[in-house]
Design brief:
Number of strands of chain B: 16
Strand content of chain A: under 5%
Distance between the termini of chain B: 85 Å
Strand order of the largest sheet of chain B: 2-1-3-14-6
Oligomer: heterodimer
Helix content of chain B: 40-55%
Number of helices of chain B: 19
Helix content of chain A: 55-70%
Largest sheet of chain B: 5 strands, mixed
Number of strands of chain A: 0
Order of helices and strands of chain A: HHHHHHHHHHHHH
Distance between the termini of chain A: 37 Å
Shape of chain B: globular
Largest sheet of chain A: none
Structural class of chain B: alpha+beta
Chain lengths: ~300, ~450
């Protein structure tokens, strides 16, 4: 049991050493977040210091009166619903393959991780050219080799979202790395036991590997969900901010950005930001609630 | 042995810290010595340092417009040597908004440039929002008055009696047609024979659209390219959207709805994806579809004459006013830019000195001659130069029949929303009546906040 004076001194020094971080959190996170909550109930423009309280007007206007807002919610939800499972399935499959002891394993692992290092802006521009309906490499190859008339990809309202989802699969390298780490942790003893029980490779994956890596899958599921609703850079680069064609690429974060920094309606944009927070919070809570399928090997059964 | 290892790690950390600190000090020291010294060498009086101001413009110096603007800056620097020196900074506009995000962010942050190039139809919006400096007194002090300008230009630059910009140039829009393509399709190529009815025009466009298999190799006409906008066409179709000096908008005017519908029928007829693939393959102004000879007709502005002449001098083309249906009229939309002092401009006097020079009748006239634009200042508008080129004469003859965009503080919002509606129309989506009625309601409602 430490004496009162010593405890106070410990507290003082503890706070002192943590103060840079504390001040950072206070000024760069807490204050802006609370200010944003305040502004979401006003008509603050961001240009003039004039602030008028408008109650829940911003929220009701967006939900009930704004076509583009509803479209942006739909687009972001569409993106989340398709890109998250596809991303997870693809990266788990790739991790399993990259875990095989073949020659040049290190080379393959590096190559499949490299796209993660490409800046998002460069990514957007690069794939815009590849997917160009008239002159892009993809449609050209489809025609030359398979005699298939490629679709409009990013220029078609029907195909644009599937295209960006496909695009997002190029950078699964980050997830793959986490799964590779998880795969190393699966005890060999379990595989041996499965072998003894007569399991083939596919059954081993289904009954040993996958359950053992479910914590990492869950982690990536949460992170992907949060990331999918905040999807911005690539769509902004491709559409220059207006979500064309036919607003099919107007995502939530981009619409928020437009309201804030192009139309200068900070109050409205703050309302959007808080709604996004609520959506992501609810989604994350649902995921946690339904996470019974995650097997933590440290727990007692 | 363990003992030495422990020490050598500490030694390494010590060394690293010293090297790091040394590098930091060296870097800071270098920055300090870069500060220019105030005193001149020797005993001579120091030459007065010119005040540096920045002028932000969305015209790229590699295009003729930007080049000409840059030149005005250089001429200004020459005449004001030792007093004011202006730096031309290229800041592109964002997407389809006609607005520079970088400029707006800096105004909001309180760090704007001294002067900027600003699309004139947005002046009412951003002036009313407090993003632009009120230059009414500065202008009257410099002897600049309403009578120096064409009415529409002065109106666009003011809101509620306050002047927020100095109008610069204007332009208007018409149909450009490729004579060779018309001849190939069997149509007469002289101006007088060009149809004035929209129905005949649509038929011509269809004739001149050529497909090879599933792909287009030549397009007759596509309404949403270049300067094709619902509002612009609606003016030719007889729209009555706004009363000068009034406060009520009629964006759901039947001609507006007709224009949107008409645009949509082109999307449905020619197949959205095929056209999009064709049109989106083109980059900047040098690779424009009509200039490259891949489109038979195009709705574009007077400024494009310069582009065509520069990038494809062999193009055999002419210009006619936009055709219209029954109930329409020969008309067009006149736009143009201006120069402004952003709110919070660090040097209002020097900034105004520059913008009044930039937008002076002489300098504007010089600029317009180089870029096939039209001055908003009455002083030189009668100059024979503007009617000497028979193609440009068409644009000059249209000017008395031209309308600007509504000079109201919801101008930006209307523009953005109309661009959104055009995006939907050009993909065959959305109901024009519904969309325009809603836009009209919203625009009028928002207008109330400014009245």
């Amino acid at each position: 049991m430490l004496g009162g004076r010593i405890r106070r001194r410990n507290l003082f020094f503890g706070l002192l050493f943590a103060s840079p971080w504390l001040l950072g959190v206070l000024f760069f996170i807490l204050v802006p977040v609370v200010a944003s909550l305040y502004y979401s109930f006003t008509d603050y423009s961001g240009l003039s210091p004039e602030v008028n309280f408008v109650g829940v007007d911003n929220f009701t206007k967006l939900i009930f009166d704004d076509d583009s807002f509803r479209r942006s919610v739909y687009n972001s939800a569409y993106y989340a619903v398709f890109s998250i499972p596809l991303g997870i399935i693809t990266s788990v499959a790739m991790a399993l393959m990259l875990n095989m002891k073949v020659k040049g394993q290190a080379v393959y692992r590096t190559v499949y991780f490299l796209p993660v290092l490409v800046p998002n802006v460069a990514l957007g521009i690069l794939w815009m050219w590849l997917f160009n309906a008239q002159f892009g490499l993809i449609n050209t190859l489809l025609w030359q080799i398979f005699r298939i008339q490629g679709p409009g990809w990013l220029a078609s309202p029907k195909w644009s979202k599937p295209t960006v989802i496909l695009l997002s699969l190029w950078t699964v390298g980050q997830q793959v790395v986490t799964y590779l780490a998880a795969l190393q942790d699966v005890p060999q003893a379990l595989y041996d036991a499965a072998e003894v029980d007569g399991a083939n490779a596919l059954q081993k994956i289904r009954h040993v590997t996958l359950p053992m890596i479910t914590p990492v899958i869950f982690f990536n599921l949460i992170m992907s969900t949060i990331g999918a609703f905040q999807y911005f850079t690539v769509s902004y680069v491709i559409t220059q901010g207006d979500g064309r064609p036919a607003q099919s690429l107007l995502f939530y974060a981009m619409y928020l950005y437009n309201k804030a920094f192009v139309e200068y309606r900070m109050g409205l944009a703050s309302a959007q930001a808080w709604m996004l927070f609520l959506i992501v919070l609810v989604a994350t809570l649902i995921l946690f609630r339904t996470s019974g399928w995650v097997y933590y090997s440290g727990e007692r059964s | 042995m363990r003992q030495t290892k422990k020490l050598s790690r500490r030694e390494f950390l010590h060394l690293a810290a010293m090297v790091g600190t040394g590098a930091l000090v060296a870097a800071c020291g270098a920055q300090a010595t870069e500060e220019p010294t105030e005193e001149a060498p020797g005993g001579e009086p120091a030459e007065k340092e010119a005040v540096r101001i920045a002028f932000w413009s969305g015209a790229s110096p590699s295009d003729p417009a930007g080049e000409a603007q840059y030149q005005i800056g250089e001429d200004f620097n020459e005449e004001h040597r030792g007093e004011i020196a202006v730096d031309y900074v290229y800041t592109p506009t964002t997407g389809t908004t006609q607005l520079s995000e970088k400029l707006m962010t800096n105004i909001a942050a309180g760090t704007p440039p001294e002067a900027a190039y600003f699309d004139r139809f947005l002046v009412a919006t951003w002036g009313a929002e407090g993003a632009l400096t009120d230059i009414t007194d500065l202008a009257s002090g410099a002897g600049i008055t309403k009578d120096d300008y064409f009415d529409f230009a002065w109106t666009e630059a003011t809101w509620r009696g306050k002047l927020y910009a100095l109008p610069f140039q204007t332009d208007d829009r018409a149909i450009y047609f490729n004579k060779d393509h018309l001849e190939e399709a069997g149509f007469p190529t002289d101006r007088e024979s060009f149809p004035t009815s929209i129905e005949e025009f649509d038929a011509m466009a269809e004739e001149m659209t050529i497909k090879e298999g599933p792909r287009y190799v030549q397009l007759g006409f596509i309404p949403w390219l270049s300067a094709g906008r619902i509002y612009n066409y609606a003016l030719s179709f007889g729209a009555d959207v706004f009363d000068p000096g009034g406060t009520e908008l009629r964006l759901d005017d039947p001609a507006m709805i007709y224009a949107a519908e008409w645009m949509r029928t082109y999307a449905e007829k020619y197949g959205v994806e095929a056209v999009a693939g064709f049109a989106e393959g083109f980059g900047g102004e040098a690779q424009q579809e009509f200039t490259a000879g891949l489109m038979a007709m195009e709705y574009s502005g007077s400024w494009m004459l310069n582009n065509h002449n520069r990038y494809n001098p062999d193009l055999n083309y002419d210009v006619v006013p936009m055709p219209y249906p029954e109930g329409g009229r020969m008309s067009t939309m006149c736009g143009g830019w201006s120069v402004v002092l952003p709110n919070g401009s660090p040097n209002v006097d020097a900034g105004f000195e520059f913008i009044s020079y930039f937008a002076s009748a002489e300098k504007t006239h010089e600029y317009c001659m180089k870029n096939s634009n039209i001055p908003t200042q009455k002083a030189y508008a009668d100059d024979p130069f503007y009617t000497s080129d028979p193609k440009h004469k068409v644009f000059m003859d249209l000017l008395p029949h031209a309308f600007p965009r509504p000079p109201v503080p919801v101008g930006q919002m209307i523009w953005n929303e109309l661009r959104r509606i055009e995006d939907l129309m050009s993909h065959g989506e959305g109901d024009p009546t519904e969309l325009l009625t809603k836009l009209n309601e919203d625009a009028n409602a928002e207008m109330q906040e400014y009245l």
